[in-house]
Design brief:
By secondary structure, the protein is of the alpha+beta class. The protein contains twelve helices and 33 strands.
Length: 589
């Protein structure tokens, strides 16, 4: 039967599945069959011709432990040899590689279509490449998606069980060598944390490429601030041809505002339970995935694990030819038993961003933060609006009207010598609100050049006017502007079982409204950072009542901010607010 937690989930009707061979890709019309896709064939106009013959097992039924049948497409070499399987677990349509919505998205990002064959499930490996290298690729439609039976859930134990069952079914097929791996970006990454933690016996290794790890903390209530908008964007992918229902996270968000609710507890990944080898890909720039990816890396139970921190958005990274070749070295070692010296790969490779076209990438290290990273406090001077090594003896409060102009305050320091910060920053703010009982506080670390200009960099190929428009105050996953964090004051309670001085964590199990005249301590976790400042350049930290980075993707607003009155930030004496940064004592070259 389905897992017990589904009884507490809230469901809505799924969206209609339009099976016209266009909306969900040219190969989407349902038919269980075997077919041969020939070398040189073009799946659709604009896509890369196939480089080898491919056996496609289309709409293959797979029965799960509760009797529900899901359907999957499987791409195989025609050689007849037993092969390992790469699995792309998500709700994004197994045949949707040529779907207009994805074609339009990748064109908007400047990637086009020629990087893939059109067989590529969204955010998944391209079967044309991997089949030519001796792999099978499995693209399932999860429970409730398209023609798959059952009702769709999002994250948690139901997906873990279903993924487990699919892995074990695949390993038992006559064409399988018994080895499987999970790979892909975003949803296809965070589903890995849940499935791998269930420990399917035939899961050999995983490759999570940027994915959140906690449905409450990383998606529904980042910093305790609700965000229905991006959830609604995800929900439109829950389409059914069978009248299935979809788990409605918006309804759950509204009904269960605390992380202790069973529904949210089920959506907490437990990477410590994962034991298989893992090649984890992260970046500093993804406002949806960065926090969860680094958190999962820190707690990952695998003895054999690697972290690579890159400087692009996940899709250009994942489909880059050189990066795909490196991923194949990882898979070849564990899935094909090739002696290619993969274990000699540095355990950590990190990046230092400079926003000026001279990023330092693939810096090897034994850990993250790397050796030489030292947590250093920079205190806020309310009078001079500067950051300094020592706190002011006397307090000087700084005020701003929440939501007004400018609706923020900031502090700066200009460097006399080249300086790097690599690791986990945080902010300690002593604050009060006049005229309300709560505060949403946003913190943003910027880099200013020697002329005072705020710097940022695109992490996708398209730098055109439309992307400039979208990313100026939104689409934060496409343009990196610096480390960030946010917190609702009433949700500020720290989790003493998890939080450290370096890395903060919250219980999100209570609401503590502010009393009139009450000065509170806000400990705000900020996203991991690798940032370089040259002599004469300036670091600015912004404390704001507004989500100045905006929503994650174009056309999607950010969270629901609840701010009124006047925010007061204290900056000295017993209320010495500060920014803690991971200063590199021996900067990387």
């Amino acid at each position: 039967m389905t897992v017990k937690i589904t009884e507490k989930m809230k469901f809505s009707p799924s969206f209609d599945y339009i099976d016209n061979g266009v909306e969900h890709g040219v190969l989407s019309p349902f038919e269980t069959k075997e077919m041969i896709l020939k070398k040189g064939q073009q799946i659709a106009e604009g896509f890369k011709p196939l480089t080898c013959d491919i056996k496609m097992l289309k709409d293959v039924p797979v029965k799960l432990r509760d009797g529900v049948t899901i359907y999957t497409d499987i791409y195989l070499p025609t050689t007849g040899e037993k092969v390992p399987t790469l699995i792309a677990w998500s709700p994004y349509g197994k045949s949707a590689g040529t779907a207009p919505r994805y074609v339009n998205l990748f064109n908007m990002l400047g990637m086009g279509e020629k990087w893939n064959s059109g067989l590529t499930k969204f955010e998944a490996p391209d079967p044309a490449y991997w089949v030519s290298k001796g792999y099978a690729v499995c693209n399932p439609d999860m429970r409730g998606i398209a023609h798959s039976e059952g009702n769709t859930t999002m994250l948690g134990s139901q997906e873990a069980e279903d993924g487990y069952d699919l892995i074990e079914w695949l390993a038992a097929q006559s064409w399988s060598n018994g080895k499987t791996a999970l790979t892909g970006t975003s949803y296809l990454a965070f589903s890995q944390w849940y499935i791998a933690a269930a420990r399917p016996p035939h899961l050999t290794c995983i490759n999570p490429t940027e994915g959140l790890a906690d449905g409450y903390r990383d998606l529904a209530y980042i910093g305790g601030i609700p965000d229905e908008n991006f959830i609604e964007r995800l929900a439109v992918n829950h389409v059914s041809a069978t009248g299935a229902k979809r788990e409605d996270l918006t309804k759950e968000l509204q009904a269960e505002p605390l992380a202790t609710a069973d529904i949210w507890q089920d959506k907490v990944a437990h990477p410590s339970e994962i034991t298989v080898p893992a090649f984890v890909i992260a970046s500093y720039s993804n406002t949806l995935h960065t926090m969860g990816t680094f958190r999962s890396w820190r707690t990952l139970g695998s003895k054999e694990k690697w972290l690579r921190i890159h400087d692009r958005q996940e899709w250009p990274y994942y489909y880059d030819e050189a990066n795909t070749e490196e991923l194949r070295r990882f898979f070849d070692y564990y899935l094909l038993d090739k002696d290619n010296n993969w274990p000699d790969t540095p355990k950590v490779r990190y990046t230092v961003i400079d926003f000026e076209g001279h990023n330092k990438t693939d810096i090897p290290a034994a850990a993250f933060p790397p050796a030489g990273s030292q947590n250093t406090r920079y205190y806020m001077n309310g009078l001079a609006r500067t950051l300094q090594a020592q706190p002011e003896a006397k307090d000087f409060p700084v005020k701003y009207v929440a939501g007004g102009l400018p609706g923020r305050t900031s502090f700066q320091m200009t460097f006399a010598k080249d300086t790097q910060f690599v690791g986990y920053p945080k902010a300690k703010l002593f604050m009060e609100v006049d005229g309300y009982n709560d505060m949403d506080v946003f913190v943003w670390i910027q880099k200013l050049d020697k002329f005072g200009n705020v710097l940022s960099e695109f992490v996708v190929p398209n730098h055109g006017a439309a992307l400039q428009d979208f990313t100026q105050e939104g689409a934060s996953a496409l343009r990196y502007k610096g480390a960030w964090g946010r917190l609702r004051a009433s949700m500020r309670h720290l989790d003493d079982q998890v939080a450290t001085d370096e890395i903060l964590a919250y219980t999100f199990d209570r609401v503590e409204k502010l009393e009139k005249g009450e000065i509170i301590s806000l400990d705000i976790v900020l996203s991991a950072i690798g940032l370089e400042y040259k002599a004469g350049e300036t670091l600015r930290v912004v404390v704001s009542s507004k989500d100045e980075l905006g929503g994650v993707m174009p056309g999607t607003p950010g969270g629901q901010v609840d701010n009124k009155g006047v925010h007061i930030l204290y900056t000295g004496g017993e209320y010495a607010s500060y920014l803690q940064l991971p200063l590199m004592t021996t900067p990387a070259n």
